[in-house]
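Q: Convert this sequence to structure tokens.
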Amino acid sequence: TGGGSADLFVLGDETGAFYTGDKANGYALITDFRINQGDRIQLQGSLANYTLGNTSGSLPNGVTISQGDDLIAIVQGINLTTLKNATSSAFVFKS
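A:
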């Protein structure tokens, strides 16, 4: 959970994405992502390395960020279309 202004949710760095190797058993849960406040998600590499989707089953409701079969994060409070349309302002990448 971030604060009241622009937040950076760090889910990766120059060496790789965090929360990998555990499938869907370990992931970040972002509960208050607000693009209009300047919030961004930091990942490693480029968006081509990740898949955005909707949650299903027993996972919390939101948008998933996955790398292969590893669930990196669930972003609540935003829908998939909005996040996909805002990728240039919603994500920052380290490589």
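Strands lie at 8-10, 12-13, 16-17, 28-30, 40-44, 51-54, 63-67, 70-75, 91-94.
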